[in-house]
Amino acid sequence: MKRVVAALIWKNGKILICQRTRHQPMPLKWEFPGGKIEEGEQPRDALRRELDEELGITAVIGDEVARIRHDYPAGGSIELRFYDVREYSGELENRIFRDVVWADPARLPSYDFLEADLELVNGLAEGKIPQ
Fold first, then answer.
1. Which domain holds residue 117?
2. What is the distance between the alpha carbons of residues 98 and 122, in angstroms, rounded to a whole number?
3. pLDDT (tens digit per residue) in 92-103
4. Whose CA, among 8, 29, 74, 126, lies 20 to 30 Å from 111?
């Protein structure tokens, strides 16, 4: 099973979402920034590393907000851990995505998210997950 971490980065009541490029697996889908946990790496350390690589920021990783296991129909399982990020240093810079957007949580379902993120997306949009 692939282990993945993702950040719920908040600013002024909005949350940062990112769109994959045409050349990535599941092209042009929206997701929360983050990535794979490397062998021997702790989840928070993996997320800190990924946010530096993808967005050029040094994040303060908060509480784990959700843990979701998803089995893709074509095969492959993923365990996603989502962490709250309320503080970071550095200028946010899009290094790998097609687009990055500060979105209103209520509007999240209007974006074409990765299947594994949909449960969390709906929870955020419905106010079931603290913002």
1. 2-125
2. 23
3. 999 999 999 999
4. 74
